[in-house]
Automatic annotation (TrEMBL), chain A:
<dbReference type="Pfam" id="PF00005">
    <property type="entry name" value="ABC_tran"/>
</dbReference>
<keyword id="KW-0067">ATP-binding</keyword>
<dbReference type="InterPro" id="IPR027417">
    <property type="entry name" value="P-loop_NTPase"/>
</dbReference>
<dbReference type="GO" id="GO:0005886">
    <property type="term" value="C:plasma membrane"/>
</dbReference>
<keyword id="KW-0472">Membrane</keyword>
<dbReference type="GO" id="GO:0015416">
    <property type="term" value="F:ABC-type phosphonate transporter activity"/>
</dbReference>
<dbReference type="InterPro" id="IPR012693">
    <property type="entry name" value="ABC_transpr_PhnC"/>
</dbReference>
<feature type="region of interest" description="Disordered">
    <location>
        <begin position="246"/>
        <end position="267"/>
    </location>
</feature>
<keyword id="KW-0547">Nucleotide-binding</keyword>
From TrEMBL, chain B:
<dbReference type="Pfam" id="PF00528">
    <property type="entry name" value="BPD_transp_1"/>
</dbReference>
<dbReference type="InterPro" id="IPR000515">
    <property type="entry name" value="MetI-like"/>
</dbReference>
<feature type="transmembrane region" description="Helical">
    <location>
        <begin position="186"/>
        <end position="207"/>
    </location>
</feature>
<feature type="transmembrane region" description="Helical">
    <location>
        <begin position="214"/>
        <end position="235"/>
    </location>
</feature>
<feature type="transmembrane region" description="Helical">
    <location>
        <begin position="128"/>
        <end position="151"/>
    </location>
</feature>
<feature type="transmembrane region" description="Helical">
    <location>
        <begin position="241"/>
        <end position="258"/>
    </location>
</feature>
<keyword id="KW-0813">Transport</keyword>
<dbReference type="InterPro" id="IPR005769">
    <property type="entry name" value="PhnE/PtxC"/>
</dbReference>
<dbReference type="GO" id="GO:0005886">
    <property type="term" value="C:plasma membrane"/>
</dbReference>
């Protein structure tokens, strides 16, 4: 069965046509790496997949279930099956690392927050949260404040949170873009290890082509709101991947002549 | 460093002519000020007479009348009670008002508009007017004061809380929504923890503000030390009035010190 099936997907932000007839299917247990320049619609696609941004035309099926016109309760149930790893980690500040991991269970708990707070959670839930933290190697930081953690450690906590969620699909939106190369590689290793352990499906966007050549089963490339590349990882050519970043890549591309580069990039 | 070769582009002028709008505003303001100064009859002669009268007042106020200090202490205590009870209930009620008034937590736009209207009404009506209204409604005494403080606190705190809630970083809330959490769980799990520090600061300031208004509320008969002060002034017992003013000064300053100590610990 397909984990994700997207057919003829269109999405507009006001008048901006972001996704322009997108087709993609991902089978269960597959790990797909999604490439594309900034502003090509990758993040929008990711947000459409779990209903954070509703799409306008076309259809998305998650594990055989259509994502259109779901009642709020059904949408929440579907979201439980999709774990999301963000570029900016998105941990809640001012609560402990352990509590952040427990938040992963929010969707499963009938009483929501009440039975997910560290002080009220069941022993079973607390043990599962600790196991998830042990899996990502941060059990010793359980009581720490999130701000005291490095970027790589924060992303590990975020992965532990999706483990807590018991998701079947993981959507990772540039999970290593704000990390240094070494930490980024560690996070990718960890992510790929846990998804193989649990037989999860992964859709992961990346910016580093070298990383893309090393992880995942399949490489999918996006350019200006469409999919233009879809090959098994072993057969991908560097030229094809680099082509994704040339020419008209953005969905909001202004004509080149009106945007002269005045200052050289400093980073 | 000076340049020897002539500049190609003209230098920007040192001054720019103010716009017509600015001129109009300044003229209207000046006209109002001159007319106002004439109407309120501010003259040097009257000011000098005022200073002489103030000297008479101080002469009769010294030494402060320290008899019946226990009665005054009890009224001061009643003022404290009014402030503490009013501000506590006010802060607790502010939270739901703030959540309904903030753009990112309001259930629908019209609920937000109505809530914001209610809150701004509470804020626009001064505390003394609220006290007058409640004295009519529930009679003379501290209860009218408590109700007035509640209204004043909600008007102030709910607005600051809701502004803080709107500023909150959307990432963590999105992460919790993505786990399938319901709206209330997201508010309690991500939004409240991230806003807690600033809300505590606002609450402490509300307590200081409530104490100051609780003092003046007595002037219109809403209980506390203000009642004693109004009576002393009307009966020309200036020595007693001075004792009361000094007492208020000591308590308010002491309380502000305490509150800034708490603030340092919390934030």
């Amino acid at each position: 069965m397909n984990a994700i099936t997207i057919t003829e997907l269109h999405k507009y932000y006001a008048t901006l046509h972001v996704l322009r007839g997108l087709n993609l299917s991902v089978t269960q247990g597959e790990c797909v790496i999604l490439l594309g320049a900034n502003g090509c619609g990758k993040s929008t696609l990711m947000r459409c997949l779990n209903g954070l941004a509703p799409h306008d035309q076309g259809s998305i099926h998650i594990l055989g279930e259509p994502l259109t016109r779901l009642s709020p309760a059904k949408l929440r149930r579907l979201r439980q099956k999709i774990g999301v790893v963000f570029q900016q980690f998105n941990l809640v500040q001012n609560v402990s690392v352990f509590q952040n991991v427990l938040y992963g269970a929010l969707g499963q708990q009938r009483l929501g927050l009440l039975t997910s707070l560290s002080c009220f959670a069941s022993n079973e839930l607390r043990e599962r949260a600790m196991a998830a933290l042990e899996r990502v190697g941060l059990a010793h930081k359980a009581q720490a404040d999130c701000r005291a953690l490095s970027g790589g450690q924060q992303q590990r906590v975020a992965i532990a949170r999706t483990l807590m969620q018991d998701a079947e699909i993981i959507i990772a939106d540039e999970p290593v873009a704000s990390l240094d190369p070494k930490a980024g590689r560690e996070i990718m290793d960890l992510l790929l290890d846990v998804v193989t352990e649990r037989g999860m499906t992964v859709l992961c966007t990346l910016h580093q082509l070298e990383l893309a050549q090393q992880y995942g089963d399949r490489i999918v490339g996006m350019k200006a709101g469409r999919i233009v590349l879809d090959v098994p990882r072993q057969q991908v050519a560097m030229d094809d991947m680099q082509h994704l970043y040339q020419g008209e890549t953005r969905v909001d591309q202004p004509p080149l002549s009106t945007t002269p580069r005045l200052t050289p990039a400093t980073h | 460093m000076s340049t020897n070769h002539p500049l190609e582009t003209a230098l920007p002028p040192r001054f720019r002519r103010p716009s017509l709008f600015t001129c109009a505003i300044v003229l209207v303001f000046l006209a109002l000020f001159i007319q106002g100064a004439m109407a309120t009859n501010v003259t040097l002669e009257r000011l000098l007479r005022g200073i002489v009268n103030l000297g008479h007042f101080l002469g009769r106020a010294f030494p402060p009348d320290l008899s019946n200090l226990d009665v005054l202490a009890w009224s001061m205590f009643e003022t404290l009670n009014i402030a503490i009870v009013g501000v506590t209930i006010g802060i607790i009620l502010s939270l739901p008002f703030a959540l309904l008034a903030a753009r990112n937590t309001a259930p629908t736009p019209w609920v937000r508009t109505i809530t914001r209207f209610i809150v701004s009404t509470m804020r626009t009506i001064p505390d003394l007017i609220w006290a007058l209204i409640f004295v009519v409604a529930v009679g003379l005494g501290p209860m009218a004061g408590v109700l007035a403080i509640i209204m004043d606190t909600i008007g102030f705190a709910a607005r600051f809380f809701s502004e803080r809630i709107e500023e909150v970083h959307p990432g963590p809330s999105e992460a919790l929504s993505a786990t399938g959490a319901g709206k209330l769980s997201v508010i309690g799990g991500a939004i409240l923890p991230e806003t807690l520090a600033s809300m505590t600061a606002t609450s402490l300031y509300s307590v200081e503000k409530a104490l100051r208004s609780a003092v003046t509320l007595g002037l219109v008969g809403a209980g506390g030390i203000g009642v004693e002060l109004a009576a002393a002034m009307r009966l020309f017992n200036f020595d007693r009035a001075l004792t009361i003013i000094l007492l208020i000064l000591v308590v308010v300053i002491g309380f502000e010190q305490l509150s800034s100590q708490i603030r340092k610990r919390v934030i």
